[in-house]
Known about the structure:
About 45% of the residues lie in helices and about 15% in strands. By secondary structure, the protein is of the alpha/beta class. The protein has a 7-stranded mixed β-sheet, with helices on both faces. The termini are far apart. About 45% of the residues are buried. The model has no long low-confidence stretch (mean pLDDT about 95). The structure holds pyridoxal-5'-phosphate (PLP). Pyridoxal-5'-phosphate (PLP) binds next to α6.
Amino acid sequence: MVNQNAYALGANRSCIRDLFEYGRQRAAIVGPENVYDYSLGNPSIPAPKEVNEAVRKILEETDSLLVHGYTSAVGDYDARKAISDDLNARYGGSTRPEEFFLGCGAAPELVSVFRALAVPGGELLAVAPYFPEYKPFAEEAGLTFKVVPPDVPDFQINIAALAEMLTPATQAIILNSPNNPSGVVYTRQTLTALAALLTEKAAAFGHPIYLIADEPYRELAYGVEVPFLPAIYRDTIICYSYSKSLSLPGERIGYVYVPGAATDSSMVYAAVAGAARASGHVCAPSLWQKVIARCAHLRPDLDSYNRNRLALYEGLSAMGYEMAKPDGAFYLFVKAPGGDANRFSELAKQHDLLLVPGDGFGCPGYFRVCYCVSLDMIHRSLPVFEELIRQFQ
Length: 393
Ligand code: PLP
């Protein structure tokens, strides 16, 4: 006998992984140049060269027992200090190293935070469209997962719908901006309205409502502001990852930030550390902690993502496709011609164009285009997009 929830999750591959595997099989048959794979969010820009230099230097200069040894469960002080200094320099805040818990990327950090906040009967609200893994993470933690309907067509936050869904059982709401899958960045105006609503409801319920900010794409914004949420809403907890910002998804490094000013902050911090301990996710990779101690100030070079973004946004819009302005991350979320994104994605698949239907993101009728690909592939795929939309006009 095995745990049936775990079995169901492991036995059913995600639709994104299925598409990606399908693309590999097709590439072997028709040639990689004839497959237009927009399925997977694997960064397509290399890590900054300073990162590789830091790795080399650390290996040369540091005692190998230290490089590869266990660190403190919450992470090396130097790395936490570098992160704190960088945030303070950018946002003028007063974060302290003690407020950071180094984690193995955003996924396990979210698991720890959800578990830390999971009181009996507690609910977690996610704003659609949302990252599909939130649901299994929340349910495994024992939280009831609820979805706030999308704010179409702009994909900001549907504040009115959210207001109706907040109840005394609401423990937290999770936000992801810049957003996967919409590419939208929540504006300061949206976030200020959200903060006012949460503050009012928390006072009415007599307990905090935490705002969990899932921020792997924070540095991937194209000329728009990504507001620092703890400065807008006090009870914010950040889950950050270097997977996308430094193109290090395989190295598993990031952090949880619990601001000292948040309600019950030391209790929340201890609960995050305890939840990480209970799920075996303490002591993030030691070498990469040392790299972050040297590289926390680095930013990605977004030129190639930006070129891809504009080529697709302008190209698809000119053909008649509709989508919210993709100001961040590396995704477009496009309204499916004909209204049925599953049908449209199936049709596209027949042309070896791989698009992810929006159902798994809580948003049927849209498909996701992930543009960490080559510009050349984008140019070659545009006639296929054109041929497809013509069938619906
Ligand atoms: N959250 C969002 C919105 C993501 O898109 C991803 C990965 O694609 C993650 C979390 C998980 O990131 P990590 O690789 O740091 O675990």
